[in-house]
Every structure is written in structure tokens, then in C-alpha cells.
Design a protein that fits this description.
Helices cover 64% and strands 0% of the residues. By secondary structure, it is mostly helical. Helix 4 runs antiparallel to helix 5 and helix 4 runs parallel beside helix 9. It is globular and about 50 Å long.
């Protein structure tokens, strides 16, 4: 159970914030949204930020979802992993990669499962999530793999944003929805 009860999807206010979240989520309010709505101003800002990170950045979806799944595994954010592993698969990840990430405890991953760019991104995400600081060698390897300063900045933004998400989820003990709770 979450540490604070989920707000009702039917009675949550303000309606404009609820509707903006529903629009971004394809009509749904998730458990996460129902807790964010305790602070409408924060929910509104969160929705705008996450909408931009998920839909407006140039970083390829596979790399974004790889980083998000790494953050989720490293922080114990099962809710985040539950929602983003299917997105990684949809973006071109493999079931074997998802399983390897589910058990991620170090930056060392099977080179048969992840190419050189993916390994550089995993190392980058690992360091940024576990220590905040990124070594010069790791930064150079990721920058070389991405080959574009905009993508480096956006990858950092994805990792930072989903570390924020993970900390919110874990602190409140938010649980993944059952199929019947996606209203």
C-alpha cells in the first residue's frame, strides 16, 4: 500500500490539471498521478516536464527507455520498471536486455546483449544514478557514442528526471496498477 491513499480519479481537482494528465496518458490516471494531485501545482509542472522528456526530446526512444529502466533497477523503483520495460521492448529492446536490466546492480553488462553505445549509456546512467558525479572517461565515452552535444544534454535530462520520478515513487511506496485500476 502507498504511504498516502490514492486520490479518487472521479473527484480529483482541479479538473484542468486532471484533464491535462489524462490527455498525456491516453485518458488514464495512474497511481502516480493520483498522488501527485495532492499538490495540483506540482502535478501540473510534473506533467509538463515529463511530457517534454517523453515526447519532445531528440534522444532516441530506445536509449531513453534503456536509461529509464537502468534508473528504475538501480533505485528499486519497481513501478517505474513495470511501466518502462514494455516501452523499451516497443522501442527495439529485447526481452533478454529487459531481464538483464531488471537485475542491474553494477554497470557491467553482457556485451552479447548490449552494443557499445548501449554499454556506454548504461555506464553513464549507473554513475549518474549511484554517485551523481560522472567520471571524465565515462562522459567522453557517452559523448563519443552519442556524437551530438544535444543528445548528451538530453540524456542527462532523462536520467535526472527519472531519478526524481524514482525517488518520488519509492518514498511513497507507489504500487503498479492492476489492469482494472487504469481509469
Amino acid at each position: 500500500m502507498p504511504r498516502i491513499p490514492y486520490k479518487s480519479a472521479d473527484t480529483s481537482e482541479p479538473r484542468d490539471v486532471v484533464e491535462a494528465i489524462r490527455q498525456r496518458r491516453g485518458g488514464k490516471l495512474l497511481h502516480l498521478d493520483r498522488l501527485l494531485l495532492y499538490s495540483p501545482a506540482y502535478a501540473k509542472g510534473w506533467n509538463a516536464l515529463l511530457g517534454a522528456v517523453r515526447n519532445e526530446l531528440e534522444v532516441p526512444a530506445k536509449w531513453r527507455e534503456l536509461a529509464i529502466c537502468c534508473v528504475a533497477a538501480l533505485t528499486g523503483a519497481d513501478y517505474e520498471f513495470h511501466h518502462h520495460a514494455p516501452m523499451l521492448l516497443k522501442a527495439g529492446g529485447t526481452p533478454a536486455q529487459v531481464e538483464a536490466l531488471r537485475e542491474l546492480q553494477s554497470s557491467r553488462v553482457d556485451p552479447a546483449l548490449f552494443d557499445a553505445t548501449e554499454r556506454a549509456l548504461i555506464q553513464f546512467t549507473f554513475e549518474m544514478t549511484r554517485s551523481v558525479a560522472i567520471s571524465d572517461a565515462t562522459f567522453r565515452a557517452a559523448a563519443a557514442a552519442l556524437q551530438n552535444d544535444q543528445l548528451v544534454v538530453e540524456l542527462i535530462a532523462v536520467i535526472a528526471t527519472y531519478n526524481m520520478v524514482a525517488r518520488f515513487l519509492v518514498a511513497l511506496q507507489i504500487e503498479p496498477e492492476s489492469d482494472s485500476n487504469h481509469s
